[in-house]
Write a structure and sequence with these properties.
The chain is α/β, with parallel strands linked by helices. The protein is 43% helix and 16% strand. Strand 11, helix 12 and strand 12 form a beta-alpha-beta unit.
C-alpha cells in the first residue's frame, strides 16, 4: 500500500531544474535532515541518483542496513517491492519513501496475491496439497506473497541463498511452489538435479496453470510463470558471439537469466556475487556480464585494468528502476524538509507479521547452513 499525500512542493517545479540545481537541492536537504534520513541506492540505480545514496547494495542487504540505522525516514532508490521489504524489516518508527510510485518491478507484478491464493486453492481441490507442498517466494515479490509463504510453512529467498534454502525444503517437503521467477526457480532446481519434466510451469491465466492434475501431482517443482524483462534479454547467441569476439572471456550471469544462458555461462550468481567475483579477479581478466547495464558500466569504470563487457550489445536497463530520478529524489527530500512525507510505502501490520515469519525462517535456515 502506498499513501499519496499532498506535496507542499509540486513535482512540476523540479522537472525544469538543471542537474547542478538538483544536486545542490539534494545536498542541502540531506544537510538539513542529517541523520533523520538515510538514502538507499540499489546496485541497478542510475549514476545520477546512486551518487546521492548513503548506502548501496542489493535489495535485501539495503533493507537490513537501513533497519540498523536510527534514521526516521528511509528513502529507497529502488523499486516498489524493495521499499515494502524495508518497511517490513524496518523499526516500527521508521517510515519508507519511494521517490516515484511508478518504480515497480515487472517481475513482481506478474504474481498478485489473489492469483497465488487462487492457484493454492486449485492445488487443494485436485489433492496436491495432500502432499507436503511449500510455497517459496523470491524477494522480488509483494509483501502479501511473502506473508502467504509465512502462513503456509514457506520461506522467502534471495538469489544469494536460493540454493541452501532449496536444499532444506527439498529434504523436508514433497514439492515446492516457487514464485514469481520461473528462471531462478528452474536454474536452482537444475542445480539439485531435478529434471525439467518434473518442473511444471504455472500460468496464472489458465485453469490449473495450464497443466493436467497428473502433471501437478508428479511435479517436484511448480514454477510460477514470471520473469525479469531485463535478464530475459540475454540469449544463448550472445554467449556464442562474445566468446568468438573476445577470446578468453568469462561469462558471468545472474540466475534470473534463462537456463540455456546460465548453463552456457562460466559462473552465475546474485548481484553481490557478480560484484565480488569481478572485484577479486586478477588484472587483465575478461568478463562478459549478464545483468543490468548500470551495474556493469560501474564495474567497468571501477576496474579499468579488467576488460568488462555487457553480455548483450543492446541496452539492458531496468526501466522501472530508472523512474527514480534526481528530480523525484530532490522532490521527496524537499518535502521531507517541509515536514511532508510523500509517497510513503506502508505494509499493514498483519501482512508485516507473516512476511516477517517467512523472512525469519530464511535467516534461521541460512545461518544454520
Ligand atoms: P538483488 O536481490 O540481487 O538486489 O536483485 C534484485 C533484482 O531485482 C535483480 O533483478
Ligand atoms: Fe524487477 Fe528485473 Fe528490474 Fe530486477 S531488473 S527490479 S527483477 S524488472
Amino acid at each position: 500500500m502506498s499513501s499519496v499525500i499532498e506535496a507542499v512542493r509540486p513535482m512540476e517545479d523540479y522537472l525544469v531544474m538543471s542537474e547542478a540545481e538538483l544536486d545542490e537541492r539534494i545536498a542541502a536537504a540531506k544537510r538539513e535532515l542529517g541523520s533523520r534520513v538515510v538514502i538507499l541506492g540499489h546496485h541497478y540505480q542510475r549514476d545520477d541518483v546512486v551518487r546521492h545514496a548513503d548506502l548501496t547494495g542489493d535489495s535485501y542487504q539495503l533493507s537490513v542496513m537501513a533497519s540498523k540505522t536510527d534514521a526516521e525516514f528511509i528513502v529507497f532508490c529502488g523499486v516498489h517491492f524493495m521499499a515494502e521489504s524495508a518497511d517490513v524489516l524496518g523499526k516500527p518508527t521508521q517510515r519508507v519513501i519511494l521517490p516515484d510510485l511508478g518504480a515497480g518491478c515487472s517481475m513482481a507484478d506478474m504474481a498478485t496475491i489473489d492469483q497465488v491464493e487462487d492457484a493454492w486453492e486449485q492445488l487443494r481441490e485436485i489433492g496436491v496439497l495432500d502432499q507436503r507442498v511449500a510455497p517459496i517466494t523470491y524477494m522480488n515479490s509483494t509483501a502479501a506473497i511473502k506473508a502467504f509463504c509465512g502462513r503456509n510453512e514457506g520461506v522467502v529467498c534471495t538469489s544469494s541463498n536460493a540454493v541452501p534454502l532449496f536444499d532444506v525444503y527439498l529434504k523436508n517437503f514433497d514439492k515446492m511452489f516457487f514464485f514469481p521467477d520461473q528462471h531462478l526457480g528452474r536454474n536452482t532446481g537444475k542445480k539439485f538435479g531435478i529434471p525439467l519434466e518434473k518442473m511444471a510451469l504455472w500460468d496464472p491465466h489458465k485453469e490449473l496453470g495450464g497443466n493436467s492434475p497428473e502433471e501437478l501431482l508428479e511435479a517436484k517443482l511448480i514454477l510460477w510463470r514470471g520473469h525479469c524483462s531485463v535478464h530475459g534479454r540475454f540469449k544463448p547467441w550472445h554467449v556464442d558471439q562474445i566468446r568468438e569476439k573476445v577470446p578468453g572471456v568469462k561469462i558471468l550471469v545472474h540466475p534470473e537469466c534463462v537456463h540455456e544462458v546460465v548453463e552456457m555461462s562460466d559462473l552465475n550468481g546474485s548481484t553481490s556475487y557478480i560484484i565480488k567475483t569481478v572485484e577479486e579477479s586478477p588484472a587483465g581478466s575478461k568478463w562478459a556480464i549478464g545483468t543490468e547495464v548500470n551495474l556493469v558500466s560501474r564495474l567497468a569504470d571501477r576496474f579499468p585494468d579488467k576488460e568488462i563487457h555487457l553480455l548483450a550489445p543492446d541496452l539492458c536497463m531496468c526501466a522501472t528502476m530508472y523512474r527514480i530520478s534526481p528530480q523525484s529524489l530532490a522532490w521527496s527530500l524537499d518535502n521531507l524538509v517541509e515536514g511532508v512525507v510523500v509517497n510513503e510505502i506502508v505494509v499493514d501490520d498483519e501482512t508485516k507479521h507473516f512476511a516477517n515469519i517467512a523472512l525469519a525462517r530464511m535467516i534461521e535456515m541460512t545461518e544454520k547452513k
